Amino acid sequence: MSAPKTKAKKIRVLMAKAGLDGHDRGVKVVARALRDAGMEVIYTGLHNTPEQVVRAALQEDVDVIGVSILSGAHMTLFPRIAKLLKEQKMDDVILMGGGIIPEEDKEELKKLGVREIFGPGASTQEIIEFIRKEAQK
């Protein structure tokens, strides 16, 4: 008799809108695609502070945090989220971003702890594949 198969743990993803940005169509599309791909998705809604994002990620025990920023505040919000994650010893949580982020800022954000940034035109399949690959590491 073989051992019962254990179900693989679902990847848990927290999707958030940080700052004053009020446009959430893109993040909702991505959240739906991740859910359809079998991931467990928690969407925190609009106008989150970095502290709220990290607190929710800690409470929900997520593997990935996806933050959408269209307001131009990415060089303030992402570094703060990355710093809070380090303070909470959540170094294993993958931080990724999306939205309108200039090319010249992407490298600096990656140095600060943002694993990947998806801009306009990124396919949901590309995001799904990135998360699956990174969550297995």
How would you describe this structure to a colleague?
Residues 10-137 form the B12-binding domain. One of its GO terms (molecular function) is isomerase activity. InterPro entries: Acid_CoA_mut_C, Cobalamin-bd, Cobalamin-bd_sf. The protein is an alpha/beta fold. It has one domain (12-135): Rossmann fold, CATH 3.40.50.280. Helix content is 43%, strand content 18%. It contains 5 helices and 5 strands. It has a 5-stranded parallel beta sheet, with helices on both faces. Helix 1 packs across helix 5 (124-135) and helix 2 (50-60) crosses helix 3 (74-87).
Q: Write the element-wise H/E pattern from the N-terminal end onward.
A: EHEHEHEHEH
* Main sheet specs: 5 strands, parallel
Average pLDDT, all residues? 93
The rounded distance between the terminal residues' Cα atoms is 32 Å
Question: How many H/I helices?
Answer: 5
Amount of helix: 40-55%
CATH topology: Rossmann fold
User: Over the alpha carbons, how many angstroms does the gyration radius reach?
Assistant: 15 Å
So what's the CATH class?
Answer: Alpha Beta
Overall body shape:
globular
Give the CATH superfamily.
Cobalamin-binding domain
Low-pLDDT runs of 5+ residues are: none
Strand order, sheet with most strands = 2-1-3-4-5
Overall strand count: 5
Number of domains: 1
The CATH architecture can be named as 3-Layer(aba) Sandwich
Short key terms for the protein model shown above:
137 residues; alpha/beta; Rossmann fold; five-stranded parallel β-sheet; Methylmalonyl-CoA mutase; cobalamin; Cobalamin-bd; cobalamin binding
